[in-house]
């Protein structure tokens, strides 16, 4: 099928929940994708921070092929070899002792929130309040939606799940004021992704842990977007010298295959026993085989080094543009999640469309922050190529807006 035919079918038969660009991507390799008409694109979106190893990484493809020939699905009524192996890899390389597997970021957050409430309920403590951040994004299921501190996602779905309170991100005094004896957990993205690539101060997450400790509450890090190498360390919390009590992962964990994971310590995870929580597909052989291959590749094949190196180069080049154009307000991020904030009168969404027409996929959050989330294998040459397309379009938008 060509683009037009696929678009026709989607428009007629698929729920209209996405504002889609008028192409259909049918093939990918590394940092490149091709649409159904055969056109090539340089991809700085990576399936929205999912394809951390690039598209169809050979290690992941091989693991999926081999697993698919052996066993695709089996119930969690039985022990699953690849699930246990991926859990060991994750716990060997993180603060956590145990992992609950599911299939998406929202589900991982649901599990985290349920665990926090169950942990205190088992202890006979009346703690149910969850504190999250303004401008946060935690997913679209009801608990994740209640946790998401942005009205635009919640509108029309009320009444929301109760006892969620929102405080400004990176404002420790507000967090201190919000916690009380009913607080079960504070949930935060170490770097806010959908909210505009918002990076906290060096000390904020450490201070948040102290606040939680003092209040007797748990700290949950939602690393669905920034975990699994995206910030240049395996987990984003490593950058800040503080470990959470519970962490959620999804996007980059299985090289593009749907997966979610919720990790915690032995003590906290012991609140989950047979019957308290479950997922039919969670930790299935195919997804966890892909996860093992993806994680081993990230850990063993220099991917984190490349992420830091290419991330530093991209940041430096973007700061060069900021020095040149007054309409670029700020460049911020870590590793290879980088945001470039534009002045109000520059429409980020229009720039994204123009990039697409020139063979470049980039993304914009909140219509004024261009978000760069390429595969962690991206090279400096590809960064140059991307900027070769982007800079003239930015200059043109700036000239038109007369900023
Ligand atoms: N949490 C964060 C930080 C995210 O960025 C996202 C998705 O963008 C989610 C949760 C939800 O993940 P999913 O779409 O897999 O449910």
Overview of this structure, please?
The chain has 403 residues and is of the alpha/beta class. The protein folds into two domains: 154 residues, Aspartate Aminotransferase, domain 1 (Alpha-Beta Complex), CATH 3.90.1150.10; 243 residues, 3-Layer(aba) Sandwich (Aspartate Aminotransferase, domain 2). The protein contains 14 helices and 15 strands. The protein has a seven-stranded mixed β-sheet with strand order 4-10-9-8-7-5-6, sandwiched between helices. The protein has a four-stranded mixed β-sheet with strand order 1-2-3-13. Strand 11 and strand 12 form a beta hairpin. Helix 3 runs antiparallel to helix 11 and helix 12 packs parallel to helix 14. It is globular, with a radius of gyration of 21 Å. The model has no long low-confidence stretch (mean pLDDT 97). The site of pyridoxal-5'-phosphate (PLP) has 14 residues, from helix 5.
Rg on CA atoms, Å: 21 Å
H and E string:
HEEEHHHEHEHHEHEHEEEHHHEEHEEEH
Main sheet specs: 7 strands, mixed
Distance between the termini: 43 Å
Tally of contiguous helical segments? 14
Name of the CATH first level of the largest domain: Alpha Beta
The helix content is: 25-40%
Beta-strand proportion: 15-25%
Structural class: alpha/beta
How would the global form be characterised? globular
The CATH architecture assignment of the largest domain turns out to be 3-Layer(aba) Sandwich
CATH superfamily placement of the largest domain: Type I PLP-dependent aspartate aminotransferase-like (Major domain)
What's the rounded overall pLDDT mean?
A: 97
Instruction: Tell me the count of domains.
Output: 2
Largest beta sheet: what is the strand line-up? Answer: 4-10-9-8-7-5-6
